[in-house]
Specification:
alpha+beta, HIT family, subunit A, five-stranded antiparallel β-sheet, about 15% strand
Length: about 150
C-alpha cells in the first residue's frame, strides 16, 4: 500500500492525518476504528478505511474486505468490554441511504436487550413482495453484474 488517499475537507481524512481528534480504539495499515462523536449508544464505533473513497463500491476490494474484518474485531472487543447482548453493523452508502460523511465507513453499534432501538429490518407480513416482484428485481441485479 503506497500511502493513504486523502481528500481535503473530509473529517475522516483529517482524523487520519492527525488534524482532528478522535478516540481511537484500533488501527492497522488499512483501517482505523474510533468512537462516533454522536453515539447512538456508548461504544458506537466507526471503522474507516485509510484510503478515501466516498462509496463502498469505490474502495479497493481488498480494503473493503479489511473494513469488514476490522468490524468483526471491533464487535468482539465490544462484546468483551461492554458485555453487550448484540451488535448491529450499518453502512450508509450514498445520501439517500443516510450517509452524511462521504468517506465509506462502517458503524459497529453495541446493542442491549430492551435498549429501545428496535430494528428497521423486521419483516412485515403485509408488505412482503410477491415472488414475481422479487424475480423481476433479481434479474435486473444479475444483468448489472454482467456489466461490472
Amino acid at each position: 500500500m503506497a500511502g493513504p488517499l486523502v481528500r481535503e475537507g473530509c473529517i475522516f481524512c483529517k482524523i487520519l492525518a492527525g488534524e482532528a481528534s478522535s478516540s481511537m480504539v484500533f488501527e492497522d495499515n488499512a483501517c482505523v476504528a474510533f468512537l462516533d462523536v454522536a453515539p447512538i449508544r456508548p461504544g458506537h464505533t466507526l471503522v474507516v478505511p485509510k484510503d478515501h473513497a466516498p462509496r463502498l463500491s469505490e474502495l479497493d476490494p481488498e480494503v473493503g474486505a479489511r473494513l469488514f474484518r476490522t468490524g468483526q474485531k471491533v464487535a468482539a472487543a465490544l462484546y468483551g468490554s461492554l458485555g453487550c447482548d448484540g451488535i448491529n453493523l450499518f453502512l450508509a452508502d450514498g445520501e439517500a441511504a443516510g450517509q452524511d460523511v462521504f468517506h465509506a465507513h462502517l458503524h459497529v453499534l453495541p446493542r442491549f436487550e430492551g435498549d429501545g432501538l428496535g430494528s428497521a429490518f423486521r419483516a412485515d407480513e403485509e408488505k412482503m413482495a410477491s415472488r414475481e416482484e422479487l424475480d423481476e428485481v433479481a434479474e435486473k441485479i444479475r444483468n448489472s453484474f454482467q456489466r461490472l
